[in-house]
Write a structure and sequence with these properties.
Layout (H helix, E strand, L loop, with lengths): L1 H7 L6 E4 L5 E4 L1 H6 L9 H7 L3 H4 L3 H16 L6 H13 L1 H9 L7 E9 L3 E11 L6 E6 L5 H14 L1 H4 L1
Antiparallel strand pairs: 1-2, 1-5, 3-4, 4-5
Helix pairs in contact: 3-5, 5-7, 6-7
């Protein structure tokens, strides 16, 4: 409950929590405004490989896909016989040639800290954001927080996105 309250209180900062199979467990309104795939119940792998909106969202969708697969391998660790993982991999292997290729590479990437991601947002244009990823102590969950360089064009665009996301018609 504490993480939900914390993330929910960040009105101008996109943040979400995902589980070990990359299911979004909680997302604040800014995260969902940034990318519709960041909403409760969405599996990020399904969204990346089977969803229609991801290629338009990222300028380098294959790099995002490779990162997602390598991140999944890191999340599940040695528990490759996990039934939920087996089911997810079978579904994605059947539905995506790109997933098949990336999964066969066996890349593992542990994202300690974070990185950089560029979004093509339909309302505010290009956003170059940093992200920080934190493991939630005592769980198999991760908190992901996006932020822009202070004073940058992306910071201004993120502020516009936040204003649009918090407008009354955005919730109605």
């Amino acid at each position: 409950m504490g993480i939900r309250q914390l993330v929910g209180s960040w009105a101008g900062t996109p943040a979400f929590v995902h589980g070990r199979h990359l299911d979004v467990l909680f997302a604040n309104p800014m995260a969902t405004a940034l990318a519709p795939i960041y909403r409760v119940g969405v599996n990020l792998l399904r969204a990346v490989f089977l969803g229609p909106s991801v290629p338009a969202l990222y300028p380098a969708p294959e790099a995002v896909a490779a990162s997602a697969v390598a991140g999944l391998r890191a999340q599940v660790g040695v528990e490759v016989d996990d039934p939920r993982l087996t089911e997810l991999v079978a579904e994605l292997t059947t539905g995506s040639e790109l997933f098949r290729r990336l999964w066969a590479r066996h890349d593992v990437t542990v994202r300690a800290g974070g990185g950089r991601r560029v979004f093509h947002h339909p309302q505010v244009g290009e956003l170059e954001l940093r992200y920080e990823k934190f493991t939630i102590s005592g769980t198999t969950q991760s908190l992901v927080v996006y932020h822009a360089e202070p004073g940058s064009p992306s910071a201004r665009s993120l502020a516009r996105l936040g204003a649009a996301a918090s407008a009354p018609e955005a919730h109605g």
